[in-house]
Amino acid sequence: MENINEILDIQIQSILPDINSYKNEGYSFNINNKENILLITYNNILYETKIIKIDNDYYWHLSPYNNSYFLTNLYNPNSFDMVLFAIKENDTLYKNQ
Q1: Which residues in the chain come in under a pLDDT of 70?
Q2: What is the value of pTM for the model shown?
Q3: How far apart are CA 81 and CA 97, in angstroms?
Q4: Three-state DSSP class for 80?
Q5: How many CB atoms lie within 10 A of CB 65?
Q6: Which phi and psi (to 5°) does residue 68 adopt?
Q7: What is the pLDDT of residue 75?
Q8: DSSP 3-state assignment of 39?
Q9: So what's the pLDDT on residue 43?
Q10: How far apart are alpha carbons 17 and 94 in whole angstroms?
């Protein structure tokens, strides 16, 4: 059985080949290993992304997202791209509310 830290490490390794294109789009990344959180900054807003388990499935959990959070199944195709899209959407739609 995998633990959250191992799953996050695997996901980060899968992201690394695309990291420069993400940075060119304005995202920056930092890892908080102590809390197993991937910190993403976009337009000077800090987002926390972590992997959570609900029932027997794993999800990317992104906060803040509007006044709540955003979840997407970790093993859906392009799930990390969905997280980045949610960040961009949050910035576009909710930043000035």
Answers
A1: 1-2, 95-97
A2: 0.89
A3: 25
A4: helix
A5: 17
A6: -145, -135
A7: 92
A8: strand
A9: 93
A10: 30
Residue 96 tokens read as 């000035």
Where is 57: in which H helix or E strand?
strand 57-65
CA distances from 12 to 8, 9, 59, 66, 92 (A): 6, 5, 14, 25, 26
Q: Could you tell me how far CA 51 lies from the centroid of its own chain?
A: 8
Q: Are 66 and 56 in contact (CB under 8 A)?
A: no
Listed in sequence order, the DSSP H helices in the chain are 4-15, 19-24, 79-94
CA distance 89 to 87: 5
Tokens linked to 73: 């199944």
- CA-to-CA distance for 38 and 94, rounded, in angstroms? 22
Give the span between the Cα atoms of 2 and 63, in whole angstroms.
Answer: 24
Geometric angle at alpha carbon 28, from 27 and 30, rounded to 5°? 145
Which residue shows structure tokens 């709540």?
68
Q: What is the DSSP letter of 74?
A: T
